[in-house]
Fold each of these.
Amino acid sequence: EVQVVESGGGLVQPGGSLRLSCAASGFTFRSYWMHWVRQAPGKGPVWVSRINSDGSSITYADSVKGRFTISRDNARNTLYLQMNSLRAEDTAVYYCVRESKHWFVPYFDFWGQGTLVTVSS
Amino acid sequence: DIQMTQSPSSLSASVGDRVTITCRSSQSISSYLNWYQHKPGEAPKLLIYAASSLQSGVPSRFSGSGSGTDFTLTISSLQPEDFATYYCQQSYSNPQFGQGTRLEIK
């Protein structure tokens, strides 16, 4: 059974840092592109970052560029999101998401339950 | 950035009703369009990918259509478990979601 399980969320002060982890199981992690998607309370999902299967290609949303760093450890089947200089507007549930493709069309076929990040003093 | 606009933003319907949700992109995205269902406290669930392909395990009452800039998600006969929020998402460029359609029981 495919599973992705996030951890590392919590309450942090503005300007602080947090590192999220996502443990993957039930599939060949090293073969898949992975993403982080976040959802603020009462809002729709917003894409944050993606990393390709071997970690050589990374993209960020403009809102987090320069502050967040995505990475992966294929030996440990784990995805990470290092979040620095956190702001109140980063408050959200953060989802670890697997990408699959149909022909050339990417889609998000497995989502974790999410981990809540709250940025507040 | 490609903007995704869903309508309606909320919808009241009854069990057994046929429901259609629309999604429009600000520029052509071919068939790079996916649909998700989200219930509170649960992980979002993929329903339709590449505009019209049904994800494995998703009931056949769900269907998707469209290409270019206009897309629809149709639920042919609403079941109690279908009351949720639905999002479209384009994957033509950096992923972008619609603002959601909340489907409520009438």
Amino acid sequence: DIQLTQSPSFLSASVGDRVTITCRASQGISSYLAWYQQKPGKAPKLLIYAASTLQSGVPSRFSGSGSGTEFTLTISSLQPEDFATYYCQQLNSYPFTFGGGTKVEIK
Amino acid sequence: EVQLVESGGGLVKPGGSLRLSCAASGFTFSSYSMNWVRQAPGKGLEWVSSISSSSSYIYYADSVKGRFTISRDNAKNSLYLQMNSLRAEDTAVYYCARVCCSGTAFDIWGQGTMVTVSS
């Protein structure tokens, strides 16, 4: 099974900060990686697919990069509505797996 | 509006069974692979099962293999998860989700249905 390691697991930041979250895969997954945002009591929301493609309707301050085993999600200028938990997911092979999550909280 | 709505969750005793449903609307359901994903209270996301558009390909997480069965009825625009031999560790919110983007993400998620396994 492919393991996804997200770091950090917790992040404290201020509005306007640039934030970067890393997701490392235990083996190569090409660009079969997605990023999701989840707020308490809500379903996950797709932000980025194919490692770097912005989902329709998602603000351009979100961006994704990487391929193979190393991926990043960047929020260029953190907004109040961005405080949430973020997950990466690999869809290269079954079983599909998620990273452990990164909780972004207000500093 | 493109939408997925889960139902069928509830409280069940260990060893019991439950059948979850996911009703799709606003898109051509029969063209998409579908999945179940769960989230235990306070924990992260766990993929549970996948089914291809025509039900030809089915996959399960090891944690549910042999106990859960995924199925779909394209005529009824519905996805199902039959859960047998339930355990306390199956307690979670269960989401159905649609595959998109050439298989690189899940773009549409339901609101989730809570399953609690407890005596």
